[in-house]
What we know:
Bound molecules: pyridoxal-5'-phosphate
Helix content: 25-40%
Number of strands: 8
CATH architecture: Alpha-Beta Barrel
CATH superfamily: Alanine racemase
Amino acid sequence: MNTLQEARNQVLEQIATASLQAKRDVDAVSLLAVSKTHPAEILKEMYATGQRAFGENYLQEALDKIAILSDLDIEWHFIGHVQRNKTKHLASSFAWVHGVDRLIIAERLSAQRDASQQPLNICLQVNIDDQDSKDGCAPAEVAELVRQMSRLPNLKLRGLMVIPAPNNTQAFFDARQLFEQVKAGHAHPEDWDTLSMGMSGDMVDAIAAGSTMVRVGTALFGARDYSK
Ligand SMILES: *Cc1c(COP(=O)(O)O)cnc(C)c1O
């Protein structure tokens, strides 16, 4: 077995164990493989292990890989911060965008998504633990943003995305509570099904709190080398 296969098996096992401990269904948590900085051929190897959902942070790097790997059935997720001038390519080339935190961004994504494509899946990023330097809307803004973004025609607002400070386990529970609050008041609660939280170092805690999608890079691909 190659090492990517082993790494993926280990991560899937961790997800299964954490789900079991939290008394949750194993298939209630999906694995997003965060492949930023890794070359297209590595993604192709990971794809061969059965992985289909890949997450990227840097637009140009992602677009290059999307072009190279266009014959593969990959579900592409953008998990970086979304800048206003980047929405056009995100709208056309991705299946999911996680880092949406302002109405204007969602409006642009909806306007630029081709109506012949599937609706673009969106997660609303929340600054759940009030970090100074962090992206994301304030928790108090969530209800109103959900109301407004849910009306946009070419988007499907699926839930929340958070990146709490390291070791802030409580933040995952706060995110879950906010997620459930929105669901309770949602006109179509079945569309509100995604809580994107947890990375290599904290996915077990995130799953315990109710994550439905963990975004895992290092544990799957090894450490990233930004110097290359
Ligand atoms: C890089 C990144 C990840 C993956 O982090 P690892 O610690 O390598 O698992 C997850 N989410 C976001 C938003 C990231 O930028």
